[in-house]
Amino acid sequence: MEEYITKAKTLIESLPYIQRFAGKTVVIKYGGSAMIDDDLKLSVIKDIVLMKLVGLKPIIVHGGGKEISYWMSKLNKQSQFIDGFRVTDEETMEIAEMILSGKVNKSLVQLMFQQGMKAVGISGKDGATIKVNKKYINGKDIGFVGDIKTVNTELLNVLLESDFIPIVAPIGLDDNGDSYNINADDAAGAIASAMNAEKLVFLTDVEGVLLDPYDQRSLISEISVDKAEELIQDGVIAGGMIPKIKCCINSVKNNVTQVHILDGRVDHSLLLEIFTEKGIGTMMVK
Ligand SMILES: Nc1ncnc2c1ncn2[C@@H]1O[C@H](COP(=O)(O)OP(=O)(O)O)[C@@H](O)[C@H]1O
Ligand SMILES: CC(=O)N[C@@H](CCC(=O)OP(=O)(O)O)C(=O)O
User: In terms of one coarse class, where is the protein primarily found (predicted)?
Assistant: First the structure.
């Protein structure tokens, strides 16, 4: 009996959150281990199904960096990253597009279908949703890597209005119509801002932002824009966490109300974050 009461309490605890978020857009950046482990993958999909069924409007923006690196190594190509961005020559661009817009994107659409949901997989190319300029890092050419210039929300809105769950691969177009590889964190951040999302959640492979990357207990639960910029300067925030944090900063500055970095290795971390009082991971505040 006790067990049932606890379950009922948990359900009731979610009520104010369901009321608060009903009809609101939530952007989920889906990447890291939660994309590779099949059980975790299904658990994330189920969390998003629940969000949709109780009236939220989820948009998934996915990564797939590990999967691209895996296929590159099969083709005897080395992966090279600068500040968390993949150096993308023409061949790498082809591989990235096949993996992101094809394999990863459609496997997520398929999983949604198996859960009885209507999902549409697009890349930033579809409907010219994501337009880019070529990105340079400290003046250095890193190939076909896009800096997002504009997000056209038309197609995303059409999909949401027709009750589809949009699933977006981080590939964009420049003015000439050439393809560009975009860091998925950048794509999620730009889409959240353009859609005036209520919430932006990054699912990743760490507990959140850590003061000491080797010590889980050093998790920072709440971080301000100023503090985050300081930690990047000091080198505490490094590698793949840099684009993530920069996106968080831009998003809170662009009025995305809540921005979180969560541990995608924890079963149902998304559900816990959205529907319970437990604040897990790192929240970015202005
Ligand atoms: N201060 C920090 N706190 C947490 N992670 C950090 C920090 N600095 C660097 N990192 C690294 O950033 C990684 C997350 O970025 P990334 O691997 O690109 O994630 P994803 O694949 O989910 O986009 C962590 O696994 C960690 O190795
Ligand atoms: C330019 C750039 O770095 N693009 C990324 C796109 C995928 C991605 O961002 O995947 P995760 O979020 O899983 O790391 C890449 O090629 O790896």
Answer: cytoplasm
Domain residues for 268? Answer: 21-285
Identify which of 77, 181, 248 to mutate to test ligand 2's pocket (most ligand atoms within 8 A of the CB): 181
Residue 150: HSE in the Cβ half-sphere, 13 Å Cα cutoff: 10
* Probe target for ligand 2 pocket from 28, 66, 86, with the most ligand atoms within 8 Å of CB: 86
* CATH number of the domain residue 99 falls in: 3.40.1160.10
7 located within any domain? no
User: In whole angstroms, how far apart are CA 206 and each of 32, 123, 145, 216, 266?
Assistant: 9, 26, 25, 8, 10
Domain assignment present for 16: no
Q: Does residue 265 have a known ligand-binding role?
A: no
Closest CA to 26 of 8, 6, 48, 7: 48
ipTM: 0.94
pLDDT of residue 83: 83
Q: How many domains does the chain have?
A: 1
CA of 236, closest atom in ligand 1:
1
Judge whether 86 is annotated as a binding position: yes
Residue 78 lies in a domain: yes
Residues of the chain where predicted confidence (pLDDT) is lower than 50: none
> Could you report the per-residue pLDDT of 17-38, keeping only the tens digit for each?
999 999 999 999 998 777 888 8
CB-CB contact of 122 with 174 (8 Å): no
pTM across the whole model: 0.94
**What pLDDT is stored for residue 214 in this prediction?**
81
Contact 129, 197 (CB under 8 A): no
